[in-house]
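Give me the fold.
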Amino acid sequence: MERSAQRLGRALIVIVDDRVAHGEHEDTVGPLVTELLEENGFIVDGTVAVAGETVDIRNALNTAVIGGVDVVITVGGTGVSPRDVTPDATQGVLDRPIPGIAEAIRSSGLAAGAVDAGISRGLVGISGSTLVVNLAGSRSAVRDGMATLSALVPAVIDQLSALD
């Protein structure tokens, strides 16, 4: 079923990467996520780069939720190193987790050979009326995660919009 951009809504991308946030490295993943979201009928409000700090990530997520986007996708900071705090920051923002979607992203990512997706601690859930999704940082994890989400996000947004 084809949906219009207005029907699916608005999205924001948060890149969690110290080097990108400090201008030391070019963001190559944000444009990919933008392209994939637009192909799936979203209007992308923009991309924000933040350092891998809990407060910075949480502030970006809260800004997206307050700004009324329908979905916010974070990319990066989902692994097991001490600097990977995206899931920890996200947990403090979520009202209701959706563990099935997070598990589907991990499972499909690992099956596609994206090891970082398979070991990701990424979360998916609802904050207010915004769907929040954590993706691992590699391009392959992003491509696979977005493919998995393309079938699921419209159903979540439909259910959330039914509440309005």
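The CA atoms of residues 18 and 51 lie 4 Å apart.
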